[in-house]
């Protein structure tokens, strides 16, 4: 994924970097008709990062 390759160097000392792209959303993620896709991805990420 291009975003990880481009942004990764800025977060070199951070834990593993993840990215999610919500097509057609621009900067208004929560107002996008596809916002539920973002919410599902965030919930999955939280479950992965903070298991249990």
Topology:
Layout lengths: L1 H6 L27 H15 L3
Offer a few descriptive terms:
mainly alpha; 40% helix; 0% strand; 52 residues; flat
User: Based on helices, strands and strand pairing, what is the structural class?
Assistant: mainly alpha
In total, the number of strands is 0
**Individual helix count:** 2
Beta-sheet strand percentage?
under 5%
Taking all residues together, what is the mean pLDDT? 89
The total domain count is: 1
Any idea what the radius of gyration is?
A: 13 Å
- Termini gap: 28 Å
Encode the helix/strand succession as letters. HH
Share in helix: 40-55%
Biggest sheet character? none
Structure description:
- The protein is mostly helical.
- It has one domain (16-52).
- Helix content is 40%, strand content 0%.
- The longest helix is centred in the last third of the chain and has 15 residues, at 35-49.
- The radius of gyration is 13 Å and the shape is flat.
- The mean pLDDT is 89.
Task: Write a brief caption for the model.
With 52 residues, this protein is mainly α. The protein has helices at residues 2-7, 35-49. The longest helix is centred in the last third of the chain and has 15 residues, at 35-49.
């Amino acid at each position: 994924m291009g975003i990880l390759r481009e942004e990764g160097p800025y977060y070199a000392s951070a834990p593993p970097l993840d990215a999610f792209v919500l097509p057609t959303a621009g900067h208004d993620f929560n107002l996008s008709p596809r916002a539920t896709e973002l919410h599902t991805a965030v919930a999955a990420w939280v479950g992965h990062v903070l298991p249990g």
